[in-house]
Amino acid sequence: MSSPDARSARIRVPASTANLGSAFDAVGLALELFLTVEVSALEAGPSRLEFRGQDASAVPHDSSNLIWRTMEEVAARHERTLPPFALRVENEIPIARGLGSSATARLAAAAAADFLCVLGLGTEGLLEIASAAEGHPDNVAPALLGGLVASISSRPILWTKIDFPSGWTIVAVTPDFELETRRARAVLPAEVPHGDAVYNVQRAAFLMAQLARGDRVGVREAMRDRLHQPYRSPLVPGLEEILALDGFEGLIGVALSGAGPTVVALADRGAEEIGGALREAFARCGVRSEARLLRADNRGLVRASPRQEERP
What we know:
This protein is an alpha+beta fold. It has helices at 4-7, 66-77, 101-117, 122-134, 140-145, 181-186, 194-213, 219-222, 229-232, 239-243, 271-283, and strands at residues 8-18, 27-41, 48-53, 85-91, 148-152, 158-162, 169-175, 251-256, 263-267, 289-294, 302-304, 309-310.
C-alpha cells in the first residue's frame, strides 16, 4: 500500500519579472510571490480542482484551467494518462499582469504531472516543457531555478544563474487592468535600427555584470531600453512618466515587468516611498494600482512532501 507521502506533493513556484529593461527576452528574476499547488492521487475519480487566492474568480475551476490542461498535455506528450487527482491551488500572483503567472502555472502543472505519472523529468525536462509552452524561457527559467537567470532559447536551452543582491528590494506596482502578452508583443516591430540594438546590447551586458557584483553604480542607465518599452508605452498609461522617475536616492533602476502592465523598481532604501511615487503616476492617469515590496527568491520551484522539501 502507498504511504501518504507517496500519494501527495506540494509544489511551490515563484513569480518572476523579465527583461529588467534592456535584457529583453534574455533575463528574468524570481520573486518571493508564490503559486502553491497541492496535488494528490485519488483511488477513483472524478478529478477535481480547488483554486483560492489572487484572481480566483477570473480563472476556471475545472478541466479548462491552465494548470489542469497543461498536466494533461504533459502526460499525453509522454504517452501517459493522468490518474484521478485532486488539486488545491493557492495563488498570490496577479494573472496576466507581467509577473510570469502563466509560466508559473505551466511549471507547477508539469511538476504535478511528473509526480502523478512518475515521468522523471528533472530540472532540464521541466525547463524544456514549460519553455516550449510559453514560447521562451525568460520567465520559466528563474521560476524554476530561482535567482537572476540569463537564458538562450537554444536546444538544449542554455542558462546561467546568479543570486540577486540580498539587500535590494523589488518594488512591484501592478495597475488594475490586464495586458495580454500576445497584445504586448503585437506592437513590437519586426525590425529595429542597428543603433537601437547596440544600445540595448551594451546596457544588458553592463547590467548583468553589475548585478553579479551586487554593484548599483550605472544600473539605472543599464536598465534603459529601446527595443520594447517605447513601443509598449501606449498600452500602459503612465509608463513614460514612470520610466523617467527620478529624485529618489534609493532608486537603483526601473522597468516594465515582462510585457506589463506591472512595473518594477529596484531599490536599496526608500522602497515604500518609491512604491508610492509609482502608484501616484498611475493615479494621475486615472489608473488604480497595488504596490508590493518583494525580495528575490533564490530557490525556485520546490516540491515538498509532509517529510521533506526537494528541488525538482
